[in-house]
Amino acid sequence: MLNNSFWTKIIYILSLVISLTVAFLILGPRPEGIEGTLDVSILPLVNAVLNGTTTILLILGFILIKQKRREQHRNVMLSAFGMSCLFLVTYVVYHWFNSGPKLYMGDFTTIYYFILITHIVLAVIIIPLALFTLYRGWTSQLNQHRKIARITLPIWIYVSITGVIIYLMLY
Questions:
Q1: CA-based radius of gyration for the chain
Q2: What does the alpha-carbon distance between residue 86 and residue 82 come to, in Å, rounded to a whole number?
Q3: Which of 18, 69, 141, 160 is the most buried (most CB within 10 A)?
């Protein structure tokens, strides 16, 4: 097995690549004629469902580990990670074919932007946190896994819940 230093570098590089890719897709230019070539209008709803499912799985995973049901905890948390990965894929596809962020048109602008900004900042932070938490659990570094999971879990739940809230406020 490769050492922790190798995986630490991989996690940071992957986290940076994911964050920069998402930022580029939202704010960067598109190839001429790509926008609208694929109907992605259902994907915001799909993303909200994936975020909601992730929230439920994270809470279930927490309950399972408190009950010392480690194998079920592992399976549920891997499912939560998979949901987040699927969310990321559909989010990238949506923003590739639909340029720019959707503007908020509601009456709660201050609340919306507070939720949005904290969501974005913590979504960037959760990428390496989730990867480190997964890596520590996967490699049976349970003390380190527990320490980082205490930080990761509430942030990940916040990001997934606020993803649903943002969808509800926009659509």
A1: 17
A2: 6
A3: 160
Phi, psi values for residue 36, rounded to 5° = 85, 0
Cα distances (angstroms) measured from residue 44 to each of 47, 51, 69, 95, 116 = 5, 10, 34, 10, 15
Structural tokens at position 68: 């010392």
Parent domain of 52: 4-30+39-170
**Beta-carbon-side half-sphere exposure of residue 41 (alpha carbons within 13 Å):** 4
How far apart are alpha carbons 140 and 65 in whole angstroms? 14
Q: Give the model's pLDDT for residue 2.
A: 53
Task: Extract the tokens encoding 69.
Answer: 């049901």
Q: How far apart are CA 84 and CA 119, in angstroms?
A: 14
Residue 1, pLDDT score: 46
Domain count of the fold of the chain: 1
Phi-psi region of 73 (alpha: psi -120 to 50; beta: other; left: phi over 0): alpha
CA distance 84 to 92: 12
pLDDT digits (tens, 9 = 90+) for 6-25: 999 999 999 999 999 989 88
Alpha-carbon distance of 34 to 63, in angstroms, equals 44
